[in-house]
Design a protein that fits this description.
By secondary structure, this protein is mostly helical. The protein is built from twelve helices and no strands. Keywords: Membrane, Transmembrane, Transmembrane helix. It comes from Streptomyces clavuligerus.
């Protein structure tokens, strides 16, 4: 009997030890799995940060090279910059000529239109200065020179954006800043700290939104190959559209640039809040403060589009 009890007790202790061992083993495996997943996530985040750092560094080095090349011929740089300033200034001269015959356009005064023009002109000028070269991607796809960029240990987007960096484009930025300054000094607005803060925010977020449109248009050229004008319709055409108040366009067009291609978040929605004007399409007023979120979302979507286009590229002759 005593031997049977001893065997039973020993069996129960053994079973308990096995159970404890199994529990600890499972806990150890589970702990190891969570640590492994965390390590992979940390490794992916570090890789993305390293890629971004390398891209920005490479962009800066290539831009510095083109700036040094441009400044070798200073007189040429000054003339081309003035030409860029004058070419874009003609758009506002046309608006001034219109206001020599009318008092308001779409219910907006000259000063109010100058604010709209200045915000979008400055934002687009900054974007065009930094990313304007990506519109040449279609040409590189067609003639096969994109392949030379793929074999370099530098992000392709950074190389494309910095390729033939045109410092003369600061003329467009300067023209937009001057018109914006004129508009802000002459417009009749009850300024508050919030409205004052929204002006530089509009310029920065507008540049990011335009940049996202530039990148998406460039990604589209991986498939279309010869669609630079389609891209220009949304970039340069979008800039021209936003120079005028939304009341002069049809509501369907206003809805399109509000809910499909979010160009209205560059200046229409926030600027109309600053000017105290109603938006022609019924939207919540809080959307006037949404441009930073829209800029982040547009940048994220453009990154996905760029990676999809780059993966679809099959080089020439294939």
């Amino acid at each position: 009997m005593a031997g049977s009890e001893a065997l039973a007790g020993g069996g129960s202790h053994g079973a308990g030890a096995v159970a404890d061992g199994g529990t600890h083993g499972a806990g150890a495996v589970a702990g190891g799995g969570s640590h492994g997943t965390g390590a992979l996530a940390d490794g992916g985040a570090r890789a993305r940060r390293a890629l971004l750092t390398d891209g920005v560094r490479a962009y800066g080095l290539i831009v510095a090279m083109w700036v040094r090349s441009t400044m070798t011929y200073r007189a040429s740089f000054v003339m081309t910059t003035l030409a860029s300033f004058a070419t874009t200034a003609f758009d506002f001269v046309a608006i001034l000529l219109m206001f020599s015959h009318i008092d308001a356009l779409g219910g907006y005064s000259l000063a109010e239109i100058a604010v709209l023009y200045g915000v979008t002109g400055t934002a687009f000028g900054l974007c065009d200065l930094v990313l304007g070269s990506v519109e040449r991607l279609g040409r590189r796809v067609r003639d096969g020179t994109l392949d030379t960029l793929l074999v370099r240990p530098v992000p392709v987007l950074a190389q494309i954006a910095a390729d033939r960096f045109a410092l003369r484009r600061v003329g467009r930025v300067a023209q937009g800043v001057l018109v914006l300054g004129y508009g802000l000094l002459t417009v009749d607005v009850a300024w508050t700290p919030l409205k004052a803060l929204m002006v530089p925010a509009m310029v920065l977020t507008g540049a990011v939104i335009f940049g996202a449109v530039f990148v998406v248009g460039a990604a589209f050229q991986f498939w279309a190959q010869d669609a630079a004008q389609v891209q220009n319709a949304f970039t340069y055409g979008g800039n021209t559209l936003l120079q005028y108040p939304p009341t002069v366009f049809t509501k369907d067009l206003v809805r399109g640039v509000t809910f499909v291609v979010p160009l209205a978040f560059v200046n229409w929605l926030p600027a109309l809040y600053v000017l105290g004007r109603p938006y022609p399409v019924e939207v919540p007023q809080w959307l006037a403060f949404a441009p930073p979120l829209v800029a982040v979302a547009a940048g994220w979507a453009s990154g996905i589009a760029w990676r999809a286009g780059l993966r679809a590229y099959r080089s020439t002759g294939s």
